[in-house]
Amino acid sequence: MLARLAAVRALSPANSPYFMAALGILTSFGPMGTDMYLPGMPTIGVDLRATQDQVQWTLSAFFLGFGVGQLIWGALGDRFGRRGPIAIGILLYAVACVGCSLSSDIAHLAGWRFIQGVGACAGPVLVRAMIRDVFERDRAARTLSMMMLVMGAAPIIAPLIGGQILVWANWRWIFWGQGIFGAIAMLALFTLPETLARDRRSSLRPMTLALSYRQLLTNRSYLGYAFGSACIYGGMFAFISGSPFVYIDLFGVAPENFGFLFGINIVGMMAMSTVNSRIVMRFGAERILRIGTMLAAAAGLLVLVVAALGLGGLWGLVGALLLFMAMMALINANAMACAMQSFPHMAGTASALAGMLQFSVGSVAGWVVGLLANGTAGPMGMVICGSALLSLLLNVTLVRRAPSQTAP
């Protein structure tokens, strides 16, 4: 077994049959860490005597940890390579899974969820850097889209697993299931080669890191890509945070069936990822990003109208959300590839900062949905619509030309 893994690592990443599959698994920490326990959120509130907004703290805490932690892992990945920091992150994630399962109140559960998010983000942030190590911009965007097809099973399977666990056991066993996924991800990591050569690794000195982040935060195009993508993530996390209560409490969907409605959106994202992977090499990542952002804004407006007026009931809302979520596939992969294109010498740091912004904005969006909760789908629709419109505004005002120039 070890000899086979060593042979796989010896292959060029672009030629390895396991490369995309392993990257897809490592990128799935986000959906596996959130979607699996979504069906149990109402039950957690009852068991721990917590209100809806308090239960949503646990989701926002994970998002916040997932965002802030990326700054740490991005810097460590640029200094020590990609594989070692990912392994440490997986171990931290596994410890936090045990802590979550043993929590006796909502405050401790939120604290462990924050730690779980910090560990979980090591894989996704450094996987994006590994892709940038191997491919140039448009090929990287195509690879990210193809990887979304591989990892697309996670958001479909995760809530279904969580719902079935609730049929046979309590919500605490969901976190043991997440720990098992961590073990699978560690095995996938062993099949990957190190993609960052030693002569390309950067320093961890505070001044060097400060200059790197200053370089990123003063680059107009980078800000447009990173913040625009972060706003779209805010809309996605508004859906993740609000949909369990809207579907289960408002429309009476059984928890074990929640995963099917949730999975419809992932099918839409996978379909658009296929489209993006086929057309990005022809039209370019930036042009498709602009079109995707415009379509997402239109879909966000539709979600708001349907949620506010109740048009079509449950299935009207499901259809509007499907259109919005599908646009994620045209935005995220292209925005991330464009953001990292001008900074190949610090791809880990560029990926980390963009990822931190995505999940920080996402945590705020999820918190706002809980804060405005009134028993209807209106708050979720308002946050989704506002996030999409802001993303379009940032793209139009900050991204004015293709980032073909190198960073100063």
TrEMBL record:
Q: Does the keyword Translocase apply?
A: no
Under Gene Ontology molecular function, one entry of this record is: xenobiotic transmembrane transporter activity
Transmembrane ranges, per UniProt, are: 16-34, 54-73, 85-104, 110-131, 143-167, 173-192, 222-246, 258-276, 288-311, 317-340, 352-373, 379-399
GO CC, sorted alphabetically, is: plasma membrane
Annotated Gene3D superfamilies: Multidrug resistance protein D (1.20.1720.10)
Q: Using the record's annotation, list all stretches that form the Major facilitator superfamily (MFS) profile domain.
A: 17-403
- Source organism, top-level taxon: Bacteria
Q: Name one GO biological process term.
A: xenobiotic detoxification by transmembrane export across the plasma membrane
UniProt keywords, alphabetically: Cell inner membrane, Cell membrane, Membrane, Transmembrane, Transmembrane helix, Transport
Q: How does it sit in the membrane?
A: Multi-pass membrane protein
Sequence similarity: Belongs to the major facilitator superfamily. Bcr/CmlA family.
Report what the protein is called.
Answer: Bcr/CflA family efflux transporter
The organism of origin for this protein = Azospirillum cavernae
